[in-house]
Design brief:
This protein is of the alpha/beta class. 46% of the residues lie in helices and 12% in strands. The structure holds magnesium ion. The site of magnesium ion has 10 residues, from loops. It comes from Luedemannella helvata.
Protein backbone atom coordinates (compact mmCIF):
# COMPACT_ATOMS: atom_id res chain seq x y z
CA UNK A 1 0.00 0.00 0.00
CA UNK A 2 1.37 3.38 -1.00
CA UNK A 3 0.81 6.24 1.38
CA UNK A 4 -0.58 9.45 0.02
CA UNK A 5 -1.07 12.78 1.66
CA UNK A 6 -3.90 15.07 0.53
CA UNK A 7 -3.57 18.63 1.80
CA UNK A 8 -6.73 20.67 1.45
CA UNK A 9 -6.99 24.42 1.39
CA UNK A 10 -10.13 25.49 3.30
CA UNK A 11 -11.58 28.85 2.23
CA UNK A 12 -13.21 28.75 -1.20
CA UNK A 13 -11.95 25.21 -1.73
CA UNK A 14 -14.02 23.29 0.85
CA UNK A 15 -16.26 26.09 2.13
CA UNK A 16 -17.16 29.75 2.06
CA UNK A 17 -17.30 31.64 5.34
CA UNK A 18 -19.52 34.41 3.96
CA UNK A 19 -17.04 37.24 4.47
CA UNK A 20 -17.13 36.83 8.25
CA UNK A 21 -13.40 36.10 8.46
CA UNK A 22 -12.35 39.51 7.17
CA UNK A 23 -14.82 41.27 9.48
CA UNK A 24 -13.46 39.38 12.47
CA UNK A 25 -9.90 40.10 11.36
CA UNK A 26 -10.60 43.83 11.40
CA UNK A 27 -12.36 43.68 14.75
CA UNK A 28 -9.55 41.65 16.31
CA UNK A 29 -6.92 43.98 14.85
CA UNK A 30 -8.63 46.98 16.42
CA UNK A 31 -9.05 45.20 19.75
CA UNK A 32 -5.38 44.21 19.91
CA UNK A 33 -3.75 47.36 18.50
CA UNK A 34 -6.31 50.10 19.10
CA UNK A 35 -6.03 51.05 15.43
CA UNK A 36 -7.90 50.37 12.24
CA UNK A 37 -6.31 47.77 9.97
CA UNK A 38 -6.67 50.09 6.97
CA UNK A 39 -6.55 48.70 3.47
CA UNK A 40 -6.07 44.93 3.39
CA UNK A 41 -5.10 42.81 0.39
CA UNK A 42 -7.42 40.01 -0.70
CA UNK A 43 -7.35 37.21 1.88
CA UNK A 44 -7.39 34.51 -0.81
CA UNK A 45 -4.37 32.23 -0.45
CA UNK A 46 -2.69 34.42 2.16
CA UNK A 47 -1.92 33.31 5.69
CA UNK A 48 -3.29 35.01 8.80
CA UNK A 49 0.32 35.54 9.92
CA UNK A 50 1.09 37.35 6.66
CA UNK A 51 -2.11 39.40 6.80
CA UNK A 52 -1.54 40.48 10.40
CA UNK A 53 2.15 41.36 10.13
CA UNK A 54 1.47 43.16 6.84
CA UNK A 55 -1.30 45.21 8.44
CA UNK A 56 0.91 46.02 11.44
CA UNK A 57 3.69 47.26 9.18
CA UNK A 58 1.25 49.31 7.09
CA UNK A 59 0.06 51.02 10.29
CA UNK A 60 3.63 51.59 11.54
CA UNK A 61 3.21 49.21 14.48
CA UNK A 62 6.21 47.15 15.58
CA UNK A 63 5.80 43.42 14.97
CA UNK A 64 6.45 41.18 17.95
CA UNK A 65 5.84 37.52 18.70
CA UNK A 66 3.80 38.49 21.76
CA UNK A 67 1.53 40.73 19.69
CA UNK A 68 1.09 38.03 17.04
CA UNK A 69 0.17 35.45 19.69
CA UNK A 70 -2.31 37.83 21.30
CA UNK A 71 -3.88 38.61 17.93
CA UNK A 72 -4.32 34.92 17.13
CA UNK A 73 -5.96 34.31 20.53
CA UNK A 74 -8.38 37.22 20.10
CA UNK A 75 -9.05 36.36 16.46
CA UNK A 76 -9.93 32.75 17.32
CA UNK A 77 -12.19 33.82 20.19
CA UNK A 78 -14.03 36.45 18.15
CA UNK A 79 -14.49 34.08 15.22
CA UNK A 80 -15.98 31.49 17.56
CA UNK A 81 -18.46 34.14 18.75
CA UNK A 82 -19.51 34.70 15.15
CA UNK A 83 -20.05 31.04 14.27
CA UNK A 84 -23.78 31.51 13.80
CA UNK A 85 -23.05 34.20 11.19
CA UNK A 86 -20.62 31.89 9.42
CA UNK A 87 -23.28 29.19 9.20
CA UNK A 88 -25.94 31.70 8.11
CA UNK A 89 -23.83 33.46 5.48
CA UNK A 90 -21.43 30.70 4.44
CA UNK A 91 -21.73 27.22 3.02
CA UNK A 92 -19.89 24.01 2.35
CA UNK A 93 -18.93 24.03 -1.30
CA UNK A 94 -20.76 21.49 -3.48
CA UNK A 95 -19.12 18.08 -3.35
CA UNK A 96 -16.70 18.93 -0.52
CA UNK A 97 -18.16 16.50 2.00
CA UNK A 98 -18.50 13.72 -0.56
CA UNK A 99 -14.89 14.20 -1.69
CA UNK A 100 -13.58 14.05 1.89
CA UNK A 101 -15.63 10.89 2.51
CA UNK A 102 -14.40 9.32 -0.73
CA UNK A 103 -10.73 9.81 0.13
CA UNK A 104 -11.35 8.49 3.63
CA UNK A 105 -12.28 5.16 2.04
CA UNK A 106 -9.12 4.95 -0.09
CA UNK A 107 -6.51 2.82 1.72
CA UNK A 108 -3.34 4.69 2.62
CA UNK A 109 -4.71 8.19 2.14
CA UNK A 110 -4.19 10.73 4.92
CA UNK A 111 -6.13 13.99 4.69
CA UNK A 112 -5.07 17.21 6.36
CA UNK A 113 -5.01 20.91 5.53
CA UNK A 114 -2.66 23.62 4.36
CA UNK A 115 -4.52 26.77 5.17
CA UNK A 116 -3.97 30.42 5.91
CA UNK A 117 -6.28 29.96 8.91
CA UNK A 118 -4.80 29.42 12.32
CA UNK A 119 -5.40 25.91 13.64
CA UNK A 120 -8.34 26.85 15.90
CA UNK A 121 -10.26 28.63 13.17
CA UNK A 122 -9.45 25.92 10.61
CA UNK A 123 -11.11 23.37 12.88
CA UNK A 124 -13.94 25.72 13.79
CA UNK A 125 -14.87 26.53 10.20
CA UNK A 126 -14.73 22.94 8.97
CA UNK A 127 -16.68 21.69 11.99
CA UNK A 128 -19.46 24.19 11.40
CA UNK A 129 -20.14 22.61 8.01
CA UNK A 130 -19.61 18.99 9.03
CA UNK A 131 -16.30 18.76 7.17
CA UNK A 132 -13.86 18.21 10.04
CA UNK A 133 -14.18 14.49 10.72
CA UNK A 134 -11.98 13.30 7.85
CA UNK A 135 -9.16 15.77 8.52
CA UNK A 136 -6.17 15.06 10.76
CA UNK A 137 -5.63 18.38 12.53
CA UNK A 138 -2.67 17.04 14.52
CA UNK A 139 -0.68 17.48 11.32
CA UNK A 140 -1.15 20.06 8.55
CA UNK A 141 0.12 23.60 7.94
CA UNK A 142 -1.62 26.63 9.45
CA UNK A 143 -1.69 30.39 9.22
CA UNK A 144 -0.12 30.70 12.65
CA UNK A 145 2.99 28.79 11.51
CA UNK A 146 4.44 31.26 9.04
CA UNK A 147 3.65 34.03 6.60
CA UNK A 148 4.80 32.09 3.54
CA UNK A 149 2.44 29.46 2.20
CA UNK A 150 5.20 27.24 0.80
CA UNK A 151 6.54 26.94 4.35
CA UNK A 152 3.13 25.71 5.51
CA UNK A 153 3.21 23.00 2.84
CA UNK A 154 6.71 21.95 3.96
CA UNK A 155 5.65 21.83 7.61
CA UNK A 156 2.54 19.81 6.73
CA UNK A 157 4.64 17.24 4.86
CA UNK A 158 7.19 17.03 7.68
CA UNK A 159 4.51 16.65 10.36
CA UNK A 160 2.61 13.96 8.45
CA UNK A 161 5.81 12.08 7.61
CA UNK A 162 6.75 12.00 11.29
CA UNK A 163 3.27 11.12 12.52
CA UNK A 164 2.61 8.35 10.00
CA UNK A 165 6.18 7.05 9.57
CA UNK A 166 5.93 7.60 5.82
CA UNK A 167 8.31 9.71 3.72
CA UNK A 168 5.66 11.72 1.88
CA UNK A 169 7.11 13.51 -1.14
CA UNK A 170 6.68 14.23 -4.82
CA UNK A 171 3.64 12.70 -6.47
CA UNK A 172 2.53 11.15 -3.16
CA UNK A 173 1.54 14.59 -1.86
CA UNK A 174 -1.22 16.67 -3.42
CA UNK A 175 -2.25 20.19 -2.47
CA UNK A 176 -5.83 21.08 -3.44
CA UNK A 177 -6.63 24.78 -3.51
CA UNK A 178 -8.41 27.66 -5.20
CA UNK A 179 -5.65 30.25 -5.57
CA UNK A 180 -2.36 30.71 -7.35
CA UNK A 181 -0.73 30.80 -3.89
CA UNK A 182 -1.80 27.19 -3.27
CA UNK A 183 -0.30 26.09 -6.59
CA UNK A 184 2.97 27.95 -6.09
CA UNK A 185 3.28 26.71 -2.50
CA UNK A 186 2.89 23.10 -3.65
CA UNK A 187 5.37 23.33 -6.48
CA UNK A 188 7.95 25.06 -4.28
CA UNK A 189 7.97 21.77 -2.37
CA UNK A 190 8.02 19.54 -5.45
CA UNK A 191 4.54 18.17 -4.87
CA UNK A 192 1.42 18.11 -7.04
CA UNK A 193 -1.16 20.87 -7.15
CA UNK A 194 -4.82 20.46 -8.07
CA UNK A 195 -6.59 23.76 -8.65
CA UNK A 196 -10.30 24.17 -7.97
CA UNK A 197 -11.87 27.19 -9.64
CA UNK A 198 -14.38 27.95 -6.89
CA UNK A 199 -12.57 31.06 -5.66
CA UNK A 200 -11.68 34.30 -7.38
CA UNK A 201 -9.04 32.69 -9.60
CA UNK A 202 -10.38 31.33 -12.88
CA UNK A 203 -9.40 27.96 -14.36
CA UNK A 204 -7.12 29.91 -16.69
CA UNK A 205 -5.45 31.68 -13.76
CA UNK A 206 -4.81 28.37 -12.01
CA UNK A 207 -3.45 26.76 -15.18
CA UNK A 208 -1.21 29.75 -15.75
CA UNK A 209 0.10 29.36 -12.20
CA UNK A 210 1.14 25.82 -13.15
CA UNK A 211 -1.62 23.66 -11.64
CA UNK A 212 -1.15 20.02 -12.63
CA UNK A 213 -4.91 19.67 -13.04
CA UNK A 214 -7.74 22.20 -12.67
CA UNK A 215 -11.30 21.26 -11.69
CA UNK A 216 -14.27 23.58 -12.04
CA UNK A 217 -15.51 22.41 -8.62
CA UNK A 218 -15.51 19.40 -6.29
CA UNK A 219 -18.97 18.37 -7.42
CA UNK A 220 -17.88 15.33 -9.49
CA UNK A 221 -16.40 13.06 -6.81
CA UNK A 222 -14.94 10.60 -9.33
CA UNK A 223 -13.20 13.44 -11.16
CA UNK A 224 -11.76 14.71 -7.88
CA UNK A 225 -10.50 11.22 -7.01
CA UNK A 226 -8.87 10.85 -10.43
CA UNK A 227 -7.29 14.29 -10.30
CA UNK A 228 -5.82 13.84 -6.85
CA UNK A 229 -4.72 10.21 -7.09
CA UNK A 230 -3.19 10.40 -10.57
CA UNK A 231 0.56 10.64 -9.99
CA UNK A 232 1.64 9.60 -13.46
MG1 LIG B 1 -8.53 29.31 -0.47
Amino acid sequence: MVGRLVLWDIDRTLLKAGGVTSEVFRAAFREVTGQDAGHLPDFGGRTDHDMFTGALSAQGIAVSDALIRRFFDVFAARLRERRHDIVARGCALPGAGAALDAFASVPGVVQSVVTGNIRETAYEKLSLFGLADRIDFTVGGYGCDDGVRATLVRLAIERASRAYGCAYAGGRVVVVGDTEHDIVGAHANGVRAVGVATGRATSGDLKAAGADIVLASLLDTDAVLRAVLDDS
